[in-house]
Amino acid sequence: MWQRFTLRNYLNSAQSRSTQLLMMSLFMLVATGLAFLLERWLLPNTATVLILLLGVITSAVLTSYAIAALAAVIGGVVFNVLFTQPRGTLHMTEPSEIATLGVFVVTALVCIYWVIGHRTSQNERRAAEIRSQLLFSLSHDLRTPLASVMGNLTTWLDYHPRLNRAEQNELISNAVFEAERLQSYIDNVLHATRFAYHQVRLIKQNLQLNAVLQSVIDRFPLQQEAINLELPQHDVTIAGQRLLLEQGLFNLLDNALRYRLADTQVRLAWQLNDNQSAVLSISNVTLQDFNAGALQRWGQPFISSKQGDSGSGGLGLGIAVAESIFSSHGFSIQPSFNDDYQLLTVTIVMPTVAKGRVHHVDA
User: Which has the closest alpha carbon to 120: 6, 4, 12, 21?
Assistant: First the structure.
């Protein structure tokens, strides 16, 4: 469900049948042209039928059952009109050609049924895996903040008469912080589902980058000293949906804070590049057991360094959501790792816009 964007994923989930019809027409046109050219080399009709069948199978892989069946009908008509005697008509006289056409239609329908059935079973298996992984995620990633909230609140209830004001405030603040982490995780699950089904409609507005960054940092009241924010005196305007952008930045910053080396800071800074785009970098010194090879799968959900219940790695859902958010806005995001300093840097390139250029985009 959370696979990377590919042509196949797009066509499988496209709401408009016109896109699939256009692609099917293109496949069949190419197959027809190729068959027509090869016929000039005196290839038998069976060879041209196989080429047309390839076009039908390609349509079945990338479109729906109905459109693939239409491709089979078109392939049969094309074979009848262009490659049988008499040419240019639907009339057929040769028994071998009639038999070839019949075999083509039956084979095409069988192939379509098998391809669509296989794709459906694969999707069902993937959906079952996602459900299983999501349950695993809920049982692990929700358990920590929920246990912390309950622990802080029960401690306050049991001992607040003997605690001074500062200690009581610390317990309440810790409970609120963990509750916000819990809310953020649930938001990530919802965002991941919406992006997976292309149900996100971006309502963009002009945003001041410095204000957005400051708003995100304010969501970490207990970790202010661990964040080194370096903002230039001038500000820039970007176009985006504020809540989504803040959620994506929150996920990246939260990940950097959780998996940084103890007593180090997470650095946030941005500057303009030659294209007048804002280049934001989020850097942190990683833990000693950080696996740089994991960056090859960076942005994929349910990628964890945990071994069973042990290990400090998360399940990658927040990073996957952040990548989907920034990609849907037209921003590029890329991680890099410096082995010498154990420094992980996530770079986001955000085009700046002139004031007044506001529009929406369907993701």
Answer: 12
